[in-house]
Amino acid sequence: MQAVQVVLKFGGSSVAEVAHWQTIADQVQHHLSNGRRPLLVLSALKNVSNLLEALLHQALTGGHPLAIANLKKRHLGFASQLGLDLNNQLNPWFEQLEVDCLAIYQAQHISPKLHAKVLATGELLSTTIGSAFLSWRGFDVLWQDAREILKSNNQQDQWHHYTSAVCDYRYDAQISAQLNARSQGRQTIIVTQGFIASDLAKDTVLLGREGSDTSAAYLAAILKAEQLEIWTDVTGVFSANPREISGARQLPRLSYQQALLMAQFGAKVLHPRVMQPMEENQIPVTVRCTSQPEHRGSLISNQGMPEISVKAVVYEANTCQIIISDLSSKSRLKLINDKLSSLGFDILLTAEIKAQNHLILNYTNSDKIQPSEKVLCELFSDDNITVNINYALITLVGEAAQQNWIEEAIHWINQLVSESQLVFYSSEDKTRLSLLVKPERYLQLSQQIHQKLIS
Fold this sequence. Notes:
Elements: E1 4-10, H1 12-15, H2 20-33, E2 37-42, H3 48-60, H4 64-81, H5 87-107, H6 112-119, H7 121-136, E3 140-143, H8 158-163, H9 173-183, E4 188-193, E5 196-198, E6 204-206, H10 212-222, E7 227-232, E8 253-254, H11 256-264, H12 275-280, E9 285-289, E10 298-300, E11 310-324, H13 330-343, E12 345-353, E13 356-363, H14 373-379, E14 385-398, H15 405-416, E15 423-426, E16 432-437, H16 442-453
Parallel strand pairs: 1-2, 1-7, 2-4, 3-4, 7-9, 8-10
Antiparallel strand pairs: 5-6, 9-10, 11-13, 11-14, 12-13, 14-16, 15-16
Helix pairs in contact: 3-4, 3-5, 4-5, 5-7
């Protein structure tokens, strides 16, 4: 049997609808009929990861048995809608959940290790259901535990080690050969999990929220696939969030760099970590819609890119600004960065504007409440910094080949906005312009910028 040639990732909204499984089966058959062996990466059913996060806190009070019973009812009910009786196949995952939640209750503490282990259950459940359905439809299915392939190389604080892992994605001929050997020459399809991996101690780790995209990219690179398809609930990548910005239009093509910037600074259709392994291996990425499979979607590659001054407007609604008296010392910056990272912050950008040194960051620790501005100031009282937590960040992603687009955008925005203290951050390579605004203004201003510079 030939090696995997295409990786298809289906998100939570895709795998949680009975009707979508006809599309999934059709896409599997399409690739098999064209001589391409597919590997499917599945997310947890929609909202299940949120329910599992809530379960962690219910375990602290001993309220987990009812929550687990509800999760079991939901998954067995969904399997039944697909025509499947999977009580025996799904039971082991729920039994393990009970063991883990009891450990949390007894310790009265949610360790990062147990946090990761509990949240991984969503993908293990969805892939058990998905592989059973495709087998029932007549496909030869190989269920694969992603943790046996994706290995974390993190050396971080405990929280990020278990919840925001980074994996080696170099091509691995041995893994490809092992998958082929398990297929025993049959025309098998492979079903595996997004979001989860393992560390050197064989503990379960997570790749960050929405990390199934990252899993798919890692696997495509490791197996040297010819293409990656991301199947989601929108028809592609748009110039702005189509649910909030009127006039947002689909981008039929964009470069890896443009897709990376959009993902880093607020677009939710892709995870930022997808782009590096794809660009390094020149694997094209297509973003397509599960409910509209006839739509061609958006293609991400470095081939045939149109030169458009401003490609997209994206935003992060909840960001912090930290002003540091001196960022020239790399050791000092690392110390501050380590402090912020251990609290659960991720730095979006580091910039020097008008002799002021700024860090712009957002909060990513979903297990703990974000520290207040007062708490942050007290923690950094010896570092001579100023903390401002009440901001939103708007970012314009543009084409570096278009001269002066950043200067023109700044000029126009300053005419548009009455605030006298807008702070702009532009990248040296002329691909990005960001600005901080008050959170109550970001949506209206993003709409106005999009209408003027893109629509």
